[in-house]
Write a structure and sequence with these properties.
Layout: H1 2-22, E1 38-48, E2 52-63, H2 66-86, E3 94-108, E4 113-129, H3 135-146, E5 150-158, H4 162-188, E6 192-203, E7 208-211, E8 229-241
Antiparallel strand pairs: 1-8, 2-4, 2-5, 3-4, 5-7, 6-8
Helix pairs in contact: 2-3
Length: 243
């Protein structure tokens, strides 16, 4: 009797499962029909010329006391900020990224412990240069203003209006997807219908980045080349099969 009762429950579960898969309620995914059609991935790619340069730069000063180090850093950083603004960088395009004050120590072998030999103040900002042709002269002005305390961590290039680039890449991706689907339909001997599913995958372009180091005042005029950026986008499209 118990065996028949268990078999009855199992049969009821199987029938319920078949009913759910065969007839999906509104708003639910039909697992059977979701795999029907022609699935393709379209790719769109746009080559863009960067029009914005972002510098990460600042000042590092070291002295015997915190007050002396901070005074040197403040004076040098003020000159650097003035140089940025004088070269057309807007104040709202300058943002503090890092500020620190910490002890500088060394190991004293005689007393076998660390001793404080000074204090180091670091003040780093990012500066967005919208007139990209002035990148080299801006860097030179910053180096001259900050002197030996100048630090440039790096520079990256980007495109200000990426929306237009993605729109163009999206057009190319959809056209690529349709061409692939049409070829597959022709090869399979079926008629291609309208898209029933579209999903977009955006590939954010990595910035063109150059790692910098401590800048020497004896360096000649800084050559800067923004190069090109590749902006790509993919779409996954499912086309219906009419017959």
């Amino acid at each position: 009797m118990k065996k028949n009762w268990l078999m009855g429950i199992s049969l009821a579960l199987v029938l319920a499962t078949v009913g759910l898969c065969g007839c999906a309620a509104p708003g639910q995914v039909d697992l059977v029909t979701q795999e029907e059609g022609i699935w393709v991935t379209g790719e769109g790619e746009v080559i863009a010329i960067p029009d914005i340069a972002t510098l990460r730069l600042g000042i590092t000063a070291q002295a015997a006391t915190v007050a002396e180090a901070q005074s040197e850093a403040t004076e040098a950083m003020t000159k650097v900020m003035d140089a940025l603004i004088d070269n057309g960088v807007a104040e709202n395009d300058i943002q503090t990224q890092h500020f620190s004050i910490y002890q500088v120590t060394r190991w004293d072998r005689e007393i076998e412990e660390e001793v404080v030999i000074g204090y180091r103040v670091t003040n780093m900002v990012t500066a967005k240069i919208r007139d990209i042709d002035k990148t080299d002269t801006t860097i030179d002005a910053v180096v001259e203003a900050g002197g030996d305390l100048t630090r440039i961590d790096g520079i990256n290039f980007s495109v200000d209006d990426q929306l237009a680039c993605y729109e163009e890449a999206r057009d190319k991706a959809m056209a690529d997807a349709k061409a692939k689907a049409e070829q597959l339909a022709e090869l399979a001997g079926v008629t291609l219908g309208k898209p029933t599913y579209i999903s977009e995958g955006t590939q954010i372009p990595p910035p063109i980045y150059f790692r910098g180091a401590d800048v020497e005042m004896t360096a000649p005029s800084t050559p800067i080349s923004p190069g090109e950026m590749e902006i790509s986008l993919t779409v996954q499209v499912v086309y219906a099969i009419l017959g």
